Structures are given as C-alpha cells and as structure tokens.
Amino acid sequence: xxxxxxxxxxxxxxxxxxxxxxxxxxxxxxxLGAIEIVEAWEDDIKDGEQTDFRMAVKAQPGxxxxxxxxxxxxxxxxxxxxxxxxxxxxxQGDWEMPFDGKRMIFGGFKPVWxxxxx
Length: 118
Description:
The protein is an alpha+beta fold. The chain has helices at 15-31, 53-56, 75-87, and strands at residues 2-11, 36-41, 63-72, 105-109. Strands 2-3-1-4 form a 4-stranded antiparallel β-sheet.
C-alpha cells in the first residue's frame, strides 16, 4: 500500500466546483489503479499556537481546508499513474482550478501501521 496526501485551501463558495474537479480527476486515478480516494471538507479545525492546517497552506479569510488522500496498491502504481496523467489529453488545455495550487501541500507516504482495514 502507498498513500498520497494533500491539503489545500479552497474558497468557501467553490466547494461544488472543487468536488466536480476532484471527481473528474479521481475517476481517472481509479482507472489508473487507485484503490481509494477521500476528499474531506473542513468541519472542525482549531487554530494552533505553533502551526495548524491553515498556517500550513497560508489560508486566507473565507477559505476552507480540504484534506484528501489517495490509496494506491504500491508506489510504482502511483508513479506510473502520475506519468500517464501528465500525458493524458483529458488534462490538456485551460483548466480553471477552484483553488491556488501554489499553496497546496502534498506528499507520498509508506504506511508503517494500519488498523481497521483488511
């Protein structure tokens, strides 16, 4: 198993547009081997003293935090999917993303422990 995680600030009024883009991209990720994708909209985020989700992405007033992850069978599948998506004609052309991609943080993770799932 390999996990990619993402945190992004999205203007509150663009939730529907974000979900539409996430579903489009998610369907292609599943086509390319993703096992599970979760897109979670901010519900209960506290302000931290040292750091927090909002500080991590330099969220502005009126923006909500989206926390998402993709589970792949392995890192190789995730990397191959990324290469294929980069070349996929469905991603060509002008895209209006409903968030500032420069403030998105993301990374890949190798699980060291899991519970509750086979």
